[in-house]
Specification:
By secondary structure, this protein is an all-alpha fold. It has helices spanning 3-8, 21-27, 35-39, 50-59, 62-66, 79-83, 90-103, 110-126, 131-141, 146-160, 176-188.
Length: 190
């Protein structure tokens, strides 16, 4: 079964009543030219091309979109947005898809969301990323201890080469708290 047939197997939803409505409005003038796909440096690893993803959004195929790993592989390089002949905010639309996955707590993205939260917590606490502390926090939030074992050899290798500091750091009075609160408020309004 090719990718086009796979996207046709998913049922369409009522376009006026779903969480994709805002994204659909952002890209409604997409002409399916494929420039976004041709511009994307990560397209080779995606299960659906960016062009196919936009078609699924326009068709309201929410299940297909969120069972795909296409939007999660977007690196926000803005190549698609800069080259789009219609001037569509494609990178922003990808970001909106990521926000929906976080808000709806989709199980496929649980580990990625926990990693992202651990990263941001480290920056918020220390003003920078403290790798060992961040990874410890991340591993403690996981329910599967086998995941830790998968990364143990890499962690030991990084420590032996001096690339990973055993220093956990300490909390300090950093001006980042206000910044994090502002971003949180802005994301609630999106």
């Amino acid at each position: 079964m090719n990718q086009v047939e796979q996207t046709q197997n998913y049922q369409e939803v009522d376009p006026s009543s779903d969480s994709l409505k805002h994204i659909r409005e952002m890209i409604q003038s997409c002409i399916q030219c494929g420039t976004c796909t041709g511009s994307c440096p990560n397209e080779f690893a995606m299960d659906h091309t960016p062009r196919q993803l936009w078609r699924m959004v326009l068709m309201g195929q929410k299940d297909a979109i969120f069972h795909s790993r296409t939007f999660s592989l977007c690196s926000s390089c803005y190549s698609c947005t800069l080259r789009c002949p219609r001037g569509l905010p494609l990178t922003d639309a990808m970001h909106q898809l990521k926000l929906i996955a976080v808000r709806e707590k989709l199980s496929e993205y649980k580990i990625a969301n926990l990693f992202y939260k651990s990263f941001l917590d480290s920056v918020n606490d220390h003003g920078r990323v403290r790798e060992l502390g961040m990874m410890t926090h991340f591993f403690l939030t996981l329910t599967d201890p086998m995941v830790v074992l998968k990364f143990a050899s890499l962690g030991l290798k990084l420590m032996s080469k001096g690339k990973l500091s055993p220093h956990f750091g300490s909390k300090g009075d950093l001006p980042l708290g206000a910044l994090f609160k502002k971003v949180e408020e802005m994301e609630k309004n999106i």
